[in-house]
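Quick start: what a row looks like.
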Amino acid sequence: LEQHVLLQRQLSLIRQQQEMVDELERQLRPETEDGEEAMPTKGQREGRGDDAEPRPLAVAPEGQPEVGVEGASPKVDREVAVQVDEEQDLGVDPAVLRKEAKLHRRRTACTVLNQETGEYEYQSVWETTPRQLGQFGVGVELYFQFIKQMGIVFVIMAFLSAPALILNVAGSMVEDASLLNRAFGMLSIANLGSCPASGCQSFAQTRERCALTVSLPLFYEREKDACDLRVMDIAEWIGLLDGVAVLIFMGFGIFFAHAWIPRMVRETDDANITPADYTVWIPSLPKYLEDVDDHTNYAEKIAGHFQKVLATATKNPVTDQAVVHDVTLVHGYDGAIMQFGAKGRHLQDHDNTCLLYRKAQAVGNEKAAATHLKRISKLDGKINNIEKSLRAQARMTDEGRSVCSAFVTFSHEEYKDKALEEYRFAQYFLFRLCQPERLRFAGQRINVVEACEPTDLYWENLDYDYKKRVMRKGAVAFLTVLVLVACSLVIASLEAISDSHAPEVQKTTWIVANTEASGSECLSVCGWDLFSSPSCAGDAQSSKTWLTARLFDAGGTVAASVRLDGLCSPPWQVCDRLGENGTARAWLGIEFDSAQAVKCMKVRSDASSVTKELQPFSCASGAAPANATELAAWDPTRHCQAMELVYPTSAESSGNLNVVPDTSCAADPKDFIDLEVARRAKAESPDNPIANPTLACFCRQQARKNLAGFLTPPYSTPEEELCKEWSKETARRYGKIGGSVVAISVINQVLLVIYSYFIAWERQCTVTELAKSQFSKLFLSQFVNTGLLILFINAHIKEYPSILSFIKALSIGEGSYTDITGQWFTVVGTTLILTIFIEVFSTTCSPVVNSHVFYPLMQRYYRKTKVTQESLNDVYTLPEWNLSLRLAQSLNVIFCVVMYSGGMPILYLIGALYCFTAYWMDKWCLLRGSCRPPAFKEDVVRTSVLMLPLAAFLHAAVAGWTFGNQVLLPSEWSRLLPLAESVFGISLSEYLEVTEAYRMGMIDGVTMDFMRARFLDFSRTGSWLIMLVFLACCTYYIVYYLWVLVLRPFLMPFAFLAKELCIRCVRNCGAFCGWSLPDVAERASLSWEEAEVEMRVHGVTSSYRLADNKNYQAAYKALQHTAELLKSQGSAAPTPRRCLSTPSSAPSSAAPSPRKEQGSDAEAVSKSNFSGDENLNTIQVQCRKAEQ
C-alpha cells in the first residue's frame, strides 16, 4: 500500500512536469507559414505520438573548450569536460523539489502512514506511550521506560529522605561568608542540629547538640536551651531511611535488568514484525569454495544447506521445499565500502554542482559559473583519487570476492527458530569441535545466531578482520585513558573549589582572652606557645624561637622580652576589666618583632584558675597602645580580628588549639555593624581590607539587605563604596564557581566529538555495538569529570596505596579536606548541586534546540545551493537521535545524584526533576525533530542498568563516611562493631588513638590508618545499614568479576549442557506420563510475503541488502558507477565525469526483488531514479503490480 501511494504521487508529479515542459515549448517554438509546428515537442520526441529522435548533445572537438566554457582557468589541474544540451535542461522547478523533500522528511521521520489518506502523520508527544515507541526498536522503548521508572524511584527516595531534609533546613550549624554557599549548605547534613546560645564549646557539646525544639504555650515555663530531640536520638532513623532508599534503588536496578528487559523484549518482538524475526546470521563462512561454480552460486549453496538441515532434523523435520526466502552475502571488500561511500557522496555533490553550473550559464552569471567550475574540478580530483585506490576492488565482481558472513532469511518464523535450535550447541567453541557433518557447511564448522535488524548494520565494518578490530579496541581504550588524564589536569588547573583553605593570618600581635563562658573572672596563664604548624609541631617555627617585643595585659602591665615557659611560679594573672564598650574581659597579649602566621597554640593555666573557653585575637602592628594607661581601656574586640573559640582540655595541658579566623556574622538586622565601625575597620587594614572580618561581616550584612544589586556597579551609596573591593572579590568567587560548572559541561561536550572519532575507528559491526562503546566511554568520562574529580581534587591525601601512587602527578589529593565536614558541604557541595542542576537542562534541551532551531536555520541556508532531489533530501532529512549519548548523560546524572544524596538529600528531587524533563524532552525530540533511529537492540540499555549497583556502592561509601562523622551525625556504636573490626582491620583502641590525633591536629591529610578508622565508623548506629549495603556491593562485584573474567569462559558450556540434559529429562518424563512441552516448531506465523507487506506499511526496512539500506545508497551508487565506468572504458586511464543532461532530480524508490544478493542490484539502482518521461512506462507497470 505504501509503495502504491508513493508511485501514484510520483506519476502525478511527472505528468505535471511534462505538461509544463510541453506548454513552455509551445510558447517558444516558431511556426511555419501554413501554421504547422516546425519541430516536435519534447513529449512527442520521447515517445508520445512521434518517433522523432532528440537532438544529439553538442560535444566540443578534442582539445577545445566545451560549449559555454570559454575562458576557463588554465590553472585547473586537469581539463573539465562539460556537456551541455542545446536546450539547457535546468532541472525541475525548485518548488516541486522542496515539496518532494518535505515529503521525504516526513517519510524518514518517526511517522506512521495513514492508510486512508496516504499521508505520513507525526505521532502525538503526549499520547504516545513507551510501549508504542517499540516500533522504533526495543532499545528506544526500554530507554524511555527506564527514565520514567527511574523518576518514580527518585520520588520514593525523596519521600524517604524528606525528614532528613526538613531537619537540615531547620538547623543552624552552617556559617559561611558566601550567601550562595550558606544557602546550599543549609540543605545538607552540615546544617543538622543547633548549638546552645553560648555555642558548642567542646566536641562533647557538638555531639549532644539539639536537633528539634518543639514550641510550647507561653504559660509553660521551660529551661533555657531546652531540647526535645537530640541529633543522637534521630541518627539511627536517618541512617535507616537512607539505607532503605538505596536498597529500593538497588532492587529497581536488579528487577529492571533481569526481569523487565527480557519481558519487554519478548512483548516487543511479538507486537512488531521485523526482518530479524525471520533471519539468522552466520558470522563465519569459508571465504572461497573449492569449486568455482559453487563459489559463484554461493547463496544457492547456503539455501540448499539449510533446506537439508531442516529436512533431516531429528525431531519435526521440515518438508517444505521453500524453506529459505533470501540469502544476503557479506563479501570481502577489504574495508573499501567506506571509501565507496565517500565517492558516492562526491558524485552526488558533483551532480548538484553541474546543475548549478548550467543554471549560472543560462542566466549569464559568469562569476558563479566559474566558481562552480572550480568546485567541479576539485570534486573530479577527489573522485579520481578514490577510483585509483579502489581500482583493484572495482575490477572484481561479487562472484569473485571472498565471503565473510551471510544473512539467511527464512520463509516462515518457525523455520528460523528451528534452525537456531539445530545450531544451539554451536555457540560454544568446545561443542563446535564436535559438530555433526550434516550441520557443517562445505566441511567447515559454522555458528548460527539471531540476526540484528538491517538498519543496525555497519556494512563497511562487516568484512573487517576480527584480530585487527580487537587491536583497535585496545588502542582506543588506551587513548581514552589519556583523554581522562588530560581532563583531570584541565579541571585541576581551574582550581574551581579552592575556597577550602582557611585564610592565613600574619600579624605581629596576638591576644588570648576570657569569654562569658570561661567560668572564671581571671585569666591565669603559666605557659603560652604559638606555632605556625596546624598541628602545633616543630619548635623551630614557634614562639619559642620568634623574637618577642613585649607581653602586656588588660590591667596595663607591660613586660619586655619575657616568655611564658610553663612554670607557674608565679603565673601571669589578670582579671576582668571594663573595656571601651563597657564589657568585662580579661586578656593577655604578646607582640613579636615581625609578623607571624599563627595556626595553632597551647595554653597552660594555673590549677586554681581553670578556663573552659578562650578566644584568640590577631592585631596589626601598632594596634595595641604602648603605654599602660591606654592599655587598661583598650578593647581587642574593637581593634583586632577575632579567631574562633577554643576549648582547653585541662589546666595542665590544653591540647592543640587550632587558631582559625572567626567568620560568623550576625543575621539579625538590629545587630548589624554600623557604617562608622566598618570604616574604622577598613582603615585598620589598608593593604588588604577584604581580610578584615569586621568589614567582611558588614558587607555581607549589606548584601543580604540589598540583595544582588549591592554587588554590581555603580557603587553610589556610602555602603557600596566602602564594600567595593569586597563586592568585586565576591563576584569573582561566584564567577569562579559558575565557570567551573560551565567548564565541566563544555569538556563533556568536547569529549563527545573526540570519542565519535575514536569509536568510528574501532570498526564496530553494528550500530548497537557502537552505541555500547560510545555509551561506556562517554559515561566514564562525564562521571569522572562531574562526580569523582571534584571529590579527589579537594581531598588532602597524604598516603596513597602503592598501586595508585601515580595519581599524585595529576594534582589529585592536594586539596584541603581531610574529611567530609560541614565546610566541605558548603563549598564543594554547592558546586556539585549547581553542576547537577545545570545538567538537568543543558543535556535535555540541547537536542531539542538543535532539531528545532539550528536545523531549520541550516536547512534554509543550504537549500539554496541544492538543486537536485537527492541532495535536497539530505538537507531536509532530520538529525539523528543519539541513544548512547542520552543514556550516558542520564546515567551520569543518576550516579552523581545517588553518590552524594546521603548528605545532600535535595539531590533526590533534582534527580526526579531530571527524569521528568528528560522523558518529555527526549520524546518530543524523537517524535517531532529526529529521523527514524536504527533498530537498537536491548544490549545498550541492559549495559547501563547493570551498572546501577555500582552507584549504590558509591552511595554507601560516601554516605557511610558522612554518617560516621561524629560532628555531622553523632551516634553510638552498633552491634556490628566486631564485624567491622575484623573486616577493616582496626581495633577500637587503635581507632581512638587515630581519631584523637586527628582531632588534636596531629594528622595532616588522609592516611591509611585514618581511612581504616573512618571505615570503622560505618558500624555506628547511624550507618550500620549503609555498612551492610557497602559490604554486599563489595561481595557482589568480587563474585561478578571472578565469574566474568575467570569462571564463565570455562563453566558456561557445561552449564548449558546441564540445562539441555534437564530439558531432555523433563521431556522424556512428560512423554512417559502422557504430556509434553510446547515445541517451537508448532507455532504458526505469517509467511515472509505477508510480513513484508506489514513491514512496508510501518516503514520498516525489510531487506538486508546493501542497496536497500538508506544509509548506504551513496556507497552502492559508487559501486555501480565504478563498475560501469571500467566496463565502458576498458582501460585503466580515468576519464572526467561530464555534466550530463539532468542529474536525478525526482524522488527515488527502488522496489526490492526477492532472493537477490548484495552485488546483484545494478538493475534496481539503474531503474530507481524517476527523473523524466523515459521512466513513465516503468512507473505504470509498478503501479499495476502494487494494485494487484
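That is the whole record. Residues 462 and 765 are 5 Å apart (CA to CA). The chain has a mean pLDDT of 78.
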